Amino acid sequence: MGTRSPFFVLKSGGHTVIDDADLRKAVEELAERRGFFIVGLQNKKGRIQVIIDDYKGIKLDECIDINRQLRSLFAEKIDAYDLEVTSPGLTEPFKVYEQYDKNVGQKVQVQLHDDTQISGRLLSVSPEKIRVEEKKRIKTDKNKKKTLHQEHDIPFGDIHHTKLLISF
Q1: Is the dihedral of CA 122, 102, 127, 155 positive or negative?
Q2: Residue/partner pairs of 69-73 with CB below 8 Å, 24 or more apart
Q3: Which of 32, 44, 55, 116 is 20 to 30 A from 146 in CA distance terms?
Q4: Are 48 and 81 in contact (CB under 8 A)?
Q5: SS3 of 43, please?
Q6: 153-157-160-166 Cα dihedral, nearest 10 degrees
Q7: Hey, what domains does the chain have and what are their CATH numbers?
Q8: Where would I find the beta strands (DSSP E) of the chain?
Q9: pTM > 0.70
Q10: Average pLDDT of adjacent 10-residue blocks, the chain of 168 residues
Q11: In whole angstroms, what is the distance from residue 162 CA to residue 118 CA?
Q12: Between vectors from CA 12 to CA 76 and to CA 84, what angle results, nearest 5°?
């Protein structure tokens, strides 16, 4: 058996069940070896969804390869599941710290718990907060427009969600 621990599989009403902890461990090991990070992992109602990303972006071929590796690891036990390995959507809110880190320098929209919205460039990320530079156009007293730059330090606890702003 080597140094790897065995996977535990349960039967539920004739249906093979893959333990969440074993699934998470397998995906984490693949992430460590392959250099990606886990954005989301769900295992319910016969469906396993693995959402992965990395700092250079995940390609379709990489998702297919991870899908194959998971199928190989769990063998016939995974046949009872609909297995989906995907990257996070461009319009989906950030779910993990690494997504913030990956997008430093990009434009984001931050929705706070008090319904305040801040849109601007993500300047930095720390374990406690993010810093966003917001630019606002205001009229001066002589009917001219002036750009005002304001930096916001936003604790993660104040953030309801953050999305990448996509401009074409």
Answers
A1: positive
A2: 69/30, 70/26, 70/27, 70/30, 73/7, 73/26
A3: 116
A4: yes
A5: strand
A6: 40
A7: 9-86 (3.30.300), 97-164 (2.30.30.100)
A8: 9-12, 15-18, 37-44, 47-53, 82-86, 107-112, 117-125, 129-139, 145-155, 159-164
A9: yes
A10: 40 63 94 94 92 93 94 87 92 96 97 97 97 89 84 98 91
A11: 9
A12: 50
pLDDT of residue 86: 95
Contact (Cβ atoms closer than 8 angstroms) between residue 136 and residue 147: yes
In the structure encoding, which two tokens stand for residue 99, read together? 């997504």
Strands 145-155 and 129-139: antiparallel
CB 155 within 8 A of CB 161: no
Q: What crossing angle do the helices spanning 20-34 and 60-74 adopt, rounded to 10°?
A: 130
Instruction: Round to whole Å and give the CA distance between 152 and 135.
Output: 11
Report the 10 Å Cβ neighbour count for 48.
21
Q: Give Dmax (Cα) for the chain.
A: 79
- The counts of H helices and E strands in the chain are 3, 10
Residue with tokens 């998702």: 63
